[in-house]
Amino acid sequence: MAPTPAGNRKTRVHVVSDVHGNARDLARAGEGADALICLGDLVLFLDYADHSRGIFPDLFGVENADRIVELRTARRFEEARELGKRLWAGIGADRASVIEKAVRKQYAEMFAAFPTPTYATYGNVDMPPLWPEYAGPGTTVLDGQRAEIGGWTFGFVGGGLRTPMRTPYEISDEEYAAKIEAVGEVDVLCTHIPPEVPELVYDTVARRFERGSRALLAAIRRTRPRYSLFGHVHQPLVRRMRIGATECVNVGHFAGSGKPWALEW
Fold first, then answer.
1. Residues ≥6 apart with Cβ < 8 Å to 138
2. How far is CA 126 from CA 115, 144, 152, in A?
3. Closest listed residue to residue 179, CA positions, set 195, 158, 201, 161
4. Is this model's pTM higher than 0.70 or not?
5. Cβ of 119: how many Cβ atoms within 10 Å?
6. Is residue 214 helix, strand or coil?
7. 108-118 pLDDT, tens per residue?
């Protein structure tokens, strides 16, 4: 990492989201920056680009991974859930404990790769109760909270909104809106999910609209932060657009690119 900003020297932060198991590139993501910001989704449950990677294929094999991706992509969520139930029934072990063990293994690797300092919030596939066990002294975890970096105020809101996918950290619209409200006026608003704008929430490969936040969109219009940074949508129709005075940026699918997005001021 670069030294702490001094005098009139510019501050540079690198931002990543949707890490999904990419510890190798994560270990280098802070090089040349004063801080790293992570917008969540450290866990890799199933890689939609490579169905051999993740917790699901490790447990059930690639053919079943192919099938469940096919069903989810076709939005046949009930059939996907039924397939999942049959597969889990065949394991003969407690589902929650099996998943937690696999997630813990990934978290140990991911958090060890974080540089100092790192500011992180949760994604929708993350398991927040486990984070305190793995976040070292150089990693600050924030959710509905603020941090000062290089003279600018950054607000952090983690998690996603409820969907038929039922990922681990989905919360109600009301709870999410309360966290947005708690953050208040900031220079940079950092969230896992994007504001509810069609161009920002549509995934061109999955061919579906992901859930964005109307409360986040309203806050952007009301408080006019310099930047709104987010991830979640891996292949968005539009990666960057202005909403009034605010530059809205999808920082990219880090699991696929291995490259952070840079912000300098």
1. 114, 115, 116, 117, 118
2. 19, 16, 27
3. 158
4. yes
5. 22
6. helix
7. 999 999 999 99
Query: Which of 204, 221, 203 has its CA nearest to residue 212?
Result: 203
| Farthest CA pair distance, the chain | 62
- Give the Cα separation of 228 and 185 in Å (integer): 12
By residue count, the chain amounts to 265
Residue bearing tokens 């909104």 = 161
What's the N-to-C CA distance of the chain in angstroms? 17
- Cα angle 81-84-88, degrees, rounded to a multiple of 5: 140
Output the six-digit token pair for 254.
Answer: 């880090």
Angstrom CA distances, 123 to 31, 39, 86, 222, stand at: 23, 7, 27, 24
Are the CB atoms for 152 and 188 separated by under 8 Å? yes
Angle at 117 between CA 133 and CA 102, to 5 degrees: 30
- If you search the block for the tokens 């997005």, which residue do you land on? 261
Q: What angle do CA 159, 162, 168 make, to 5 degrees?
A: 55
- Residue 203 pairs in a beta bridge with 208, 236
Please check whether residue 187 is in contact with residue 226, taking contact to mean a CB–CB distance below 8 angstroms: yes
pLDDT at site 7: 55
Whether residue 164 has a cis bond before it, omega within 30° of 0: no
Higher pLDDT among residues 205 and 126, named by residue: 126
What single-letter DSSP state applies at residue 234? Answer: S
